[in-house]
Amino acid sequence: PQWKFGAYDSEALAWDTITKNAPNYLPFVAAGNEQQSNGNSGKPGYIAGYDVITGASAAKNVMTIGAVNGDKTMSSYSNFGPMDDGRLKPDLVAKGTGINSAQATSDTAYSGNGAGSSGTSYATPAAAASGLLLQQYYKSLYGSYMRASTLKALMIGTAEDLGRPGPDVQFGW
């Protein structure tokens, strides 16, 4: 239903309940790939490609990841915010277009680097790996891991600014 686009719904609330009860847990969630086909065009004030974040991606205390092309331009598929309550989503973007990944057809089969190897689900593991490396380094210095809120703040506060200057609802922070 159209009301779900940009809404803070029960799925988002469930994810935020989990993160509230586990303060060191920061889920990395793909923003989704429905920018072109969201069926949201009848919503008042709708602009093509915007206001398409739904479900877990809409949670406040997760790291929502969008996807950019290899040249750091916005992909044609990655979902944008804003959220209906004005929040900025996605939080960050990472390369998600043309990722060469293993396939199940044989031990040596790879997807290549075409459109079939693209999506926010390809971008999200790269961002999560960056967060994991930061946690590993922090633990080597201080003997414990950062709280999820600290990790999220560190990542969004030090991200490369792409798109329009400052945070925006396509590229995040």
Protein topology:
Layout: H1 10-21, E1 28-30, E2 63-68, E3 92-95, H2 120-142, H3 148-157
Parallel strand pairs: 1-2, 2-3
Structural summary, described in words:
The protein is 26% helix and 8% strand. With 173 residues, the protein is of the alpha/beta class. Strands 1-2-3 form a three-stranded parallel β-sheet. The two termini are 28 Å apart.
Protein traits:
single chain, 173 residues, alpha/beta, 3-stranded parallel sheet, 3 helices
Low-pLDDT runs of 5+ residues are none
List how many beta strands DSSP finds: 3
- Rounded to the nearest angstrom, the radius of gyration is 17 Å
Beginning-to-end CA distance, first to last residue: 28 Å
pLDDT averaged over residues: 90
Shape: globular
The share of residues in extended strands comes to 5-15%
User: Which series of helices and strands comes N to C?
Assistant: HEEEHH
How many H/I helical runs?
3
Main β-sheet description:
3 strands, parallel
Class from helix and strand fractions:
alpha/beta
Report the helical percentage.
Answer: 25-40%
Strands in their spatial order, largest beta sheet? 1-2-3
Précis, in short:
With 173 residues, the chain is of the alpha/beta class. 26% of the residues lie in helices and 8% in strands.
